[in-house]
Design brief:
This protein is an alpha/beta fold. It has 2 domains: about 5-20 and about 230-430, Alpha-beta prism (UDP-n-acetylglucosamine1-carboxyvinyl-transferase, Chain), CATH 3.65.10.10; about 25-230, Enolpyruvate transferase domain (UDP-n-acetylglucosamine1-carboxyvinyl-transferase, Chain), CATH 3.65.10.10. The chain is about 30% helix and about 25% strand. It has helices spanning about 25-35, 50-60, 95-105, 125-135, 165-175, 195-200, 235-245, 265-275, 315-325, 345-355, 390-400, 420-430; strands at about 5, 15-20, 35-45, 65-70, 70-75, 90, 110-115, 140, 145-150, 160, 185, 205-210, 215-220, 230, 250-260, 275-285, 290-295, 305, 330-335, 360-365, 365-370, 385, 405-410. The two termini are about 25 Å apart. The structure holds shikimate-3-phosphate and phosphoenolpyruvate (PEP). The site of phosphoenolpyruvate has 9 residues, from α3. Belongs to the EPSP synthase family.
Length: about 425
């Protein structure tokens, strides 16, 4: 993969694309397959670096897993069949893998150490240690970060009021609660993506979500049974092409088999509110809603996004900033301080990068303000991913709209969630 790319302006994107499998569901499919009895087959698995970190870690925990392209076969070991790894598990760049495995390993009868790359080693882990400790877990952090030493213990069912709106922390608690001595209740701050709950039901677990969409009850010691499932396309990956088609004149793209779980599609609602031209054809997939998105170029209006909307659009907020940079007024995004603890501080990095294009964007502690009325300029220095896949892809889409060729450095960051991003972009750029 090329480190530095030159991106040419385009006259429009056209054609149909099936985006790769969902990252969140790929992680969870591997983990639930590993702790089930019998074989699990995942079709349309995402073979990106983050999910491969989970796959390798589970192999090191004694789970036989074979992958051929996007098909993965897992020979489940059951909830009590994992074995102590020979060495520390390297979680690479993957926050989701780290937090979910912390919850699972907290209840296993052995010691594990989790380590990660420079970015992951800066990300907050106290948010997972503290509620797991309340269940009797023993997790030792290094100044609140990785490396994390997990000494497996018998866990006790508990009632946790979550302090942060995080599907990763919720999922860690669910995986721990499966191994506890009595039922557990988790109360979310705001509803977050519910893929763990849905998949757990599919594998035979007993988990209830109350009508408030925030209170979850987990029944322990289930006998999970391996499944065969097709993972929907990743809405977060589709969002890059939804944005490109919206901001580049003459564009018209169709994105097929995209996951449309409403805990993930905040970006779609925001785009429609801004005047985006999107039609949605919804179907029901295996446990997750899927559908086709048909997106055309549109002139956008500004938008206000506040805290209650953030969890359903958290990973797409750099793209909301980009949309807002083309709108005919001032947009405000608030309640999004979580962006500061992702692969990079995404408030700082998106502000730095969009300012290179002459965009009027100002950082706030919990978001940003963007005036889209200023015309863009050709950047005088290269655009950069800062090693963050979502910032890299957002800036690659931005580069298509500027007047001349634009350099993008550290473009290989896309491997974390979308290794074929540049090939897929080139395909839509060639079709007429
Ligand atoms: O559970 C998941 O799969 C994810 C949850 C979100 O993180 P938080 O739980 O930290 O909000 C999201 O940003 C991440 O890309 C994937
Ligand atoms: C934040 C992300 O992932 P993770 O937390 O799993 O590293 C992401 O994919 O944007």
């Amino acid at each position: 993969m090329i480190k530095e790319l030159s991106i040419q302006p385009t006259c429009g994107l056209h054609g149909e694309l099936s985006v790769p499998g969902d990252k969140s569901i790929s992680h969870r499919g591997l983990i639930l397959g590993a702790i089930s009895q019998g074989t699990t087959t995942l079709h349309h698995f995402l073979p990106a670096a983050d999910c491969l970190s989970t796959l390798t870690a589970l192999q090191q925990l004694g789970v036989p897993i074979e992958r051929t392209g996007t098909t993965v076969m897992i020979r489940g070991r059951g909830l009590r069949g994992l074995t102590q790894p020979q060495q520390a598990l390297d979680m690479g760049n993957a926050g989701t893998a780290t937090r979910l495995l912390a919850g699972l390993l907290a209840g296993q009868p052995f010691e594990t150490t989790l380590v990660g790359d420079a970015s992951l080693s800066q990300r907050p882990m106290e948010r997972v240690r503290q509620p797991l400790q309340a269940m009797g877990a023993q997790l030792q952090l290094t100044g609140g970060h990785l490396p994390m030493l997990i000494t497996g213990r018998t866990l006790h069912g508990s009632c946790t009021e979550m302090q942060v709106a995080s599907a990763q922390v919720k999922s860690a608690l669910i995986l721990a609660a499966l191994q506890a001595d009595r039922p557990s209740t988790i109360v979310e701050k705001l509803p977050t993506r519910d893929h763990t709950e849905r998949l757990l039901r599919l594998f035979g677990g007993q988990i209830e979500t109350a009508a408030d969409h925030r209170t979850i009850t987990v029944h322990p010691q289930p006998n999970l049974i391996g499944q065969s499932l097709t993972i929907p396309g990743d809405f977060s990956s589709a969002a890059f092409f939804m944005t490109a088609a919206t901001i580049i004149p003459n564009s018209h793209v169709r994105l097929t088999h995209v996951g449309l779980n409403s805990t993930r599609t905040g970006f779609l609602s925001i785009l429609q509110r801004m005047g985006g031209r999107v039609t949605v054809d919804r179907k029901l997939g295996a446990g997750e809603p899927v559908g086709t998105l048909d997106v055309r170029f549109a002139q956008l209006h500004p938008v206000q996004v506040t805290a209650s909307e953030i969890p359903a659009v958290i990973d797409e907020l750099p793209l909301v900033a980009l949309l807002a940079a083309t709108a005919d007024g001032i947009s405000t995004i608030s309640g999004a301080a979580e962006l500061r603890v992702k692969e990079t501080d995404r408030i700082a990095t998106i502000v730095t990068e969009l300012q290179k294009l002459g965009v009027q964007i100002t950082a706030r502690p919990d978001g940003f303000v963007i005036d889209g009325r200023q015309s863009w300029q050709q950047p005088t220095e290269p655009l950069a991913s800062h090693g963050d896949h979502r910032i890299g892809m957002t800036m690659a889409i931005s580069a298509l709209r500027v007047g001349g060729p634009t350099e993008l450095v550290d473009a290989e960051a896309v491997n974390i969630s979308y290794p074929t991003f540049f090939e897929d972009l080139a395909r839509l750029n060639q079709e007429v």
